[in-house]
Amino acid sequence: MAKKDIEGDARDPAYVALGQRVAEVRAEREMSKEELARRSELSPAYIWRIEDGRQNVQLRTLIRIAQGLGTTVAELTAGLEAKIAATGTIPGVTTGKGA
Asked: 68 with 44: CB under 8 angstroms?
């Protein structure tokens, strides 16, 4: 994860994009963070950190969240690559463009 610098927030764009998508789908389903946490068997604080882009999410956790939202991991992550590209680069990852 990107380190926070003195001048501001340096959250990893991938975590931010995923968190925004989780929050978006949860809102579409008119579900509270607490309800998603209960359905996913996670803590509300953990859901908050994910939605805020402050938490790295393991695949098994992402599966639990998708199931809690009544969707699939594929649908939950659809379009994330474009969002990440729009918000910045992922530290240590190259896109293959120009390589």
From this structure: no
Q: What is the pTM of this model?
A: 0.77
The closest alpha carbon to 25, from 55, 68, 56, belongs to 68
| DSSP class of 71 | S
**Dihedral angle, C-alpha 46, 47, 49, 55, nearest 10 °:** 80
CA distances from residue 8 to 14, 26, 54, 69 in whole angstroms, order as listed: 17, 28, 14, 32
Tally: H helices and E strands in the chain: 6, 0
The answer to whether 91 and 12 have CB atoms below 8 angstroms apart is yes
The tens digit of pLDDT for each residue in 17-49 reads 899 999 999 999 999 999 999 999 999 999 999
